[in-house]
Design a protein that fits this description.
Low-confidence stretches: 264-272
Number of strands: 4
Number of helices: 15
Helix content: 40-55%
Mean pLDDT: 76
Order of helices and strands: HHEEHHHHEHHHHEHHHHH
Strand content: 5-15%
Shape: globular
Number of domains: 1
Oligomer: single chain
Structural class: alpha/beta
């Protein structure tokens, strides 16, 4: 372990000493949240920056309604997270008990831009919107997207916040075992979420956060060097989650931006 990462781990544990048992079991500082709904027999592995607020809100509609009624969305999420499961053994047992385990993933490039826009851009000047000192410590003195990407790419998954941890790590855990019944994509969430809705008689997915609006501007955040760095850092996401073409598409766009986004020419879209 590099000296920097060792001290960062000490900072995390100093801030959250209760995370030590979790670190031993799941080999990561950031917890995985699994929201389960017993009446619907659904279990959702939360993947931040991938419509997680909207999906959590739908599952909350049938979870202890009296305690959630009238509460703001943030409080609902906090209550649900207190009841959430956190280990991959628990996920496996849910599936064995007949729960339908699912999650959603996203183009790794667009996900990192969404993280940056949500946590840094609102106030500018490298301000990070989080109360967690350990995360602030990682990103102190960040000036721009370039700096943020370099920190992300130099931080291993076991020390990463879930917002920039590999999606394959969030979904499959430290051993890379797939316990999910279904993995949908944000890029076609209306279509994919219909599979979940039909199983549990849910309504359509609600309005996403502003950082999930449908547009292509995320491509303009990258240079070829940054694109290569993100591709290497999240290679498992690109290769295993169906985004292998996105690196080539982004590089083609960056070499000739006036030609337009190749994804737009294919009539597909990505949400940022």
């Amino acid at each position: 372990m590099e000296l920097r990462n060792f001290f960062l781990m000490l900072i995390y544990l100093g801030e959250n000493p209760g995370r030590l048992p979790y670190l031993v079991r799941n080999k990561a500082i950031s917890r995985t949240f699994v929201i389960k709904n017993d009446s619907m027999k659904l279990a959702y592995i939360v993947n931040p920056k991938v419509a997680s607020s909207s999906i959590t809100a739908l599952l909350a509609s049938d979870v202890d309604v009296e305690s959630l009624e009238g509460k703001p969305t943030r409080q609902k999420h906090a209550l649900l997270q207190k009841r959430a499961l956190h280990t991959y053994d628990e996920i496996s047992r849910l599936r064995e008990a007949g729960y339908f385990v699912f999650s959603f993933v996203r183009n790794p490039y667009a996900r990192i831009v969404s993280f940056y826009k949500n946590k840094f851009e609102p106030a500018g000047n490298g301000y990070l919107r989080t109360k967690r000192f350990a995360i602030k410590h990682q990103f102190r003195k960040m000036r721009d997207f370039n700096d943020v990407v370099r920190v992300i790419c130099n931080t291993p998954d076991y020390l990463s916040d879930a917002h920039f941890m590999s999606q394959t790590r969030i979904l499959f855990g430290p051993d890379g075992v797939n316990h999910l019944d279904f993995i949908g994509k944000l890029e076609k969430i209306d279509e994919d979420f219909d599979i979940i809705s039909r199983r549990a008689n849910l309504g359509p997915i609600g309005r996403r956060n502003p950082s999930s609006s449908a547009n292509q501007e995320w491509m303009d955040y990258f240079t070829p060097d940054l694109a290569h760095m993100i591709h290497e850092r999240f290679k498992s996401d690109f290769d295993l989650l169906g985004y292998a073409d996105e690196h080539r598409n982004l590089m083609a766009y960056l070499q000739n931006p006036n030609a337009g986004n190749p994804n737009q020419r294919l009539n597909t879209h990505h949400e940022v």
